[in-house]
């Protein structure tokens, strides 16, 4: 495969990034709405991040940066939920 036709990005990683970011943004909505929306999306983002990480490692590390950010978003969402975000706020 030539350099011009080689895909340099990891679409699954970018999907994990955007879903994780959306989950983090929706998490602070009170009355369990943020818990279900943000928490549910963060679980989807975590699954996508694991898949993207495995794909990126198989491609010698290409496209792993969005996976790292998606993981950070997931951890922030779970941390926010654990202190009451989406439930009480």
Helical run tally = 3
Radius of gyration (Å): 15 Å
Biggest sheet layout: none
Query: Could you tell me the mean pLDDT?
Result: 89
Order of helices and strands: HHH
Q: Terminal Cα separation, in Å? A: 52 Å
Judged by helices, strands and strand pairing, the structural class is mainly alpha
Question: Could you explain how this protein is built, in words?
Answer:
The protein has 89 residues and is an all-alpha fold. It contains three helices and no strands. Helix 1 packs parallel to helix 3 and helix 2 runs antiparallel to helix 3 (65-82).
Features:
89 residues; mainly alpha; elongated
Secondary structure elements and their pairing?
Layout: H1 11-26, H2 33-58, H3 65-82
Describe this structure in a few short sentences.
This protein has helices at residues 11-26, 33-58, 65-82. With 89 residues, the chain is mostly helical. α1 runs antiparallel to α2, α1 runs parallel beside α3 (65-82) and α2 (33-58) runs antiparallel to α3.
């Amino acid at each position: 495969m030539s350099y011009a036709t080689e895909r340099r990005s990891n679409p699954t990683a970018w999907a994990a990034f955007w879903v994780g970011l959306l989950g983090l943004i929706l998490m602070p909505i009170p009355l369990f709405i943020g818990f279900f929306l943000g928490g549910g999306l963060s679980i989807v983002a975590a699954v996508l991040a694991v898949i993207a990480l495995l794909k990126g490692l198989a491609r010698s590390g290409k496209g792993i940066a969005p996976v790292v950010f998606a993981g950070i978003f997931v951890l922030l969402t779970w941390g926010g939920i654990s202190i009451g975000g989406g439930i009480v706020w």
